[in-house]
Write a sequence for this structure.
């Protein structure tokens, strides 16, 4: 039998768990190769000599992006740091962890963090109008307009502005609304609030806007008011039922038939996609399906993928008018699959525990069918896993060992995931765990928000208006339940300030907490927040990386925007410059974000300007570049926004400069990008840019297609023209179904290599590319 390892004497103290310095958990970073840093324990005789770092692309910590073991920085030289060696992706979440190592066999517990890479503010992504269809009739003078939701790559909340016009030039506005919140269903609706004129034609457009004012417009659609024709009633979802499952991958979509008051012939259009916005490269469309005799009509969606959730919708048409879309979703699940094997969160392999009944934690995994997962744990006395001490299961990712483990002894433990049908993943590898109750670790805390300078939120309840700030933290105490207190002061150091709140209790381990701080009665100024976590033996403190800035009622700061002449863009690639400066010296740096309300018409560079107390009076130049627009109907004008400023100076925090009204010259519509006059590949998203050697750059890009002709079932595009010095590695791109007036993303990518670096504007405008397309008709 396997030998049982028992320490014959008190083992040496294990390495103390480090604390995260940067980036704090939940932070945003503005570099593709950020520096990760931790502060190792300062306890006397701590044996730490190295720090192990790991970074992952998923919370389950399965998709490793990079790792390193670096020498510990000691004494007054500061924290131990590692710069990630490969470029990360913009607008992407990452999870990382670090632990101390004695250079031989002993490790501390992992300390875990997460961050979001966000180089600059991006406008919301393109989206589609859904109802009414282009050129369709509506039967009421206050029709309902609908569109699929846009997604903001920065995670900002998106709101919508909708405008209805009486002319194709979009100058005679008759109705509209702004600040409309997105509907959770994936499609947002708005009812025209001004009666329209019967038998008149109208044009409408929606603009998606993020929190900084950056906007993305939809294409323009038209409809005709015809109160003399009643649209057919909406069909009824029959099968698969909402939220149901299908055991086959060629799935009949069955609806209960609608009816038409004028007994017109009814046809249906079905659409199915892997996203609820129905604009991915996987979308399928039925075309027009004539209503079947009897009570139901169906259409078969083919070649669906196992363990994939699909969204589908259907509408009825009578040749003149149509019903609203009716939607549902289902999961393709022919066979039940076991969940993946979870990885260990804590204690990591080789970790040191000061308690005899530690909490064993897994990184969460997702069941392939989306069902509930439980986690099973086993603890052994031997590396061969033949002498089991205890086992158990938990519906959460953590399980506390139910019997005391032997002190001063080495143990081995493992875990797996099991779904509701008892399908289990393979067991994970065994992890060494040293149990020793001798060392004590001080509690630690990180303030998560405010992460940057923030202005309090104004909240009105029962007619009373208050100003509030939500403070968030993550505290860790491996010993007992700690207490948290929050303070504020006018200095970012020294831990001297007034109490916000005390006596906030949290359970042992690593826990997140939040507190809403009412700052209504605070005078204008800049306030720094810090937290204290304490138990019966020790204490930990930390400042928030940002600050709470309360502007005065009449700020004295000014953002001065100057432009020569009347700004305009005449064609893709045309440019004009303007300058920005401050009106008076700030007491701290002022960051002024820059954005275009319609980036498909004009892009602004750089994305932000930074003014310091030294250079505040120096005008900085901003360039606006005309874009292809990707629309046959161009906007008459758009705006360039300067603000809202971010600063520790209350007289500048939240200020904006005067917006620039930019005219779009007539005739500035997009040029031909393909050999089909109705299919336009008008822009690209660069997924990766890599310099392979001194003379070769490689780019992987996705395309954006707009269809201004009849609906198509699919499009295959092949590159026939590239920028000078470039050649294709993989030059074919595929798109799914695209109805008239829709904009869709490609389902795959193309890869280019170039002898010179390709400017970003080349991809934005798409003028140096031309495509040969093969169009598959809609069924």
């Amino acid at each position: 039998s396997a030998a049982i390892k028992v320490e014959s004497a008190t083992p040496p103290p294990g390495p103390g768990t480090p604390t995260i310095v940067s980036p704090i958990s939940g932070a945003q970073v503005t570099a593709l190769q950020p520096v990760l840093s931790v502060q190792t324990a300062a306890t006397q005789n701590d044996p730490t000599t190295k720090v192990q770092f790991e970074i992952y692309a998923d919370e389950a910590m399965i998709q490793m992006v990079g790792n390193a073991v670096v020498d510990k920085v000691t004494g007054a030289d500061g924290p131990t740091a590692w710069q990630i060696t490969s470029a990360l992706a913009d607008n992407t979440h990452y999870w990382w962890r670090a632990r101390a190592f004695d250079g031989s066999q002993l490790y501390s517990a992992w300390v875990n963090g997460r961050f979001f890479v966000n180089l600059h503010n991006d406008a919301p992504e393109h989206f589609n109008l859904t109802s009414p269809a282009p050129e369709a009739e509506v039967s009421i003078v206050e029709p309902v307009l609908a569109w699929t939701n846009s997604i903001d790559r920065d995670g900002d909340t998106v709101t919508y502005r909708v405008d209805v016009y009486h002319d194709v030039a979009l100058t005679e506005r008759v109705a509209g609304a702004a600040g409309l919140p997105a509907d959770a269903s994936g499609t947002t609706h708005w009812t025209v609030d001004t009666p329209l004129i019967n038998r008149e034609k109208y044009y409408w457009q929606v603009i998606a806007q993020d929190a900084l004012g950056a906007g993305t417009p939809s294409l323009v659609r038209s409809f005709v008011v015809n109160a003399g024709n009643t649209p057919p009633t909406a069909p009824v979802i029959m099968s698969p039922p909402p939220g149901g499952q299908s055991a086959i991958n060629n799935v009949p979509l069955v609806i209960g038939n609608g009816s038409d008051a004028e007994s017109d012939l009814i046809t249906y259009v079905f659409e199915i996609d892997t996203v609820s916005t129905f604009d991915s490269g996987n979308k399928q469309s039925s075309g027009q399906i004539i209503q079947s005799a009897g009570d139901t009509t169906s259409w078969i969606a083919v070649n669906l993928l196992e363990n994939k959730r699909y969204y589908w919708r259907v509408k009825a048409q009578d040749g003149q008018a149509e019903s609203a879309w009716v939607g549902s979703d289902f999961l393709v699940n022919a066979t039940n699959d076991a969940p993946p094997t979870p990885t260990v969160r804590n204690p990591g392999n080789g970790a040191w525990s000061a308690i005899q009944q530690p909490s064993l934690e897994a990184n969460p995994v997702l069941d392939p069918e989306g069902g509930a997962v439980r986690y099973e744990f086993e603890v052994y006395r031997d590396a061969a896993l033949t002498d089991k001490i205890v086992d158990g299961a938990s519906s959460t990712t953590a399980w506390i060992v139910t019997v005391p483990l032997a002190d001063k002894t080495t143990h081995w433990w493992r875990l797996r995931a099991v779904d509701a049908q008892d399908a289990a993943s393979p067991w994970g590898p065994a992890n060494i765990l040293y149990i020793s109750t001798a060392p004590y670790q001080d509690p630690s805390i990180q303030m998560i928000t405010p992460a940057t300078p923030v202005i309090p939120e104004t909240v009105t309840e029962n007619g009373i208006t208050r100003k509030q700030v939500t403070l968030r933290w993550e505290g860790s105490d491996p010993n007992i339940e700690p207490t948290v207190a929050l303070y504020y002061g006018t200095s970012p150091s020294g831990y001297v300030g007034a109490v916000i709140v005390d006596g906030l209790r949290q359970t042992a381990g690593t826990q997140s907490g939040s507190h809403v701080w009412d700052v209504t009665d605070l005078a204008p100024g800049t306030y720094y927040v810090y937290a204290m976590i304490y138990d019966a033996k020790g204490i930990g403190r930390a400042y928030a990386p940002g600050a709470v800035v309360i502007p005065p009622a009449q700020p004295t700061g000014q953002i001065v925007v100057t432009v020569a002449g009347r700004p305009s863009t005449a064609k893709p690639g045309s440019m004009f410059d303007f300058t920005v400066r401050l009106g008076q010296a700030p007491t701290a740096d002022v960051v002024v974000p820059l954005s275009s309300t319609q980036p498909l018409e004009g892009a602004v560079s750089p994305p932000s300007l930074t003014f310091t107390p030294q250079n505040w009076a120096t005008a900085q130049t901003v360039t606006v570049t005309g874009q292809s627009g990707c629309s046959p109907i161009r906007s008459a004008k758009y705006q360039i926004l300067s603000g809202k400023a971010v600063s520790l100076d209350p007289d500048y925090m939240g200020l904006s400069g005067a917006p620039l009204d930019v005219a779009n010259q007539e005739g500035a519509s997009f040029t031909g990008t393909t050999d089909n006059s109705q299919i336009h590949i008008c822009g690209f998203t660069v997924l990766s840019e890599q310099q392979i050697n001194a003379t070769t750059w490689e780019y992987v890009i996705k395309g954006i297609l707009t269809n201004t002709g009849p609906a198509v079932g699919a499009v295959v595009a092949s590159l026939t023209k590239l920028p000078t010095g470039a050649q294709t590695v993989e030059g074919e791109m595929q798109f799914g179904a695209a109805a008239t007036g829709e904009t869709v993303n490609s389902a795959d990518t193309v890869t280019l290599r170039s002898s010179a670096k390709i400017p970003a504007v080349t991809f934005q405008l798409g003028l140096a590319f031309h495509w040969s397309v093969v169009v598959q008709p809609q069924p």
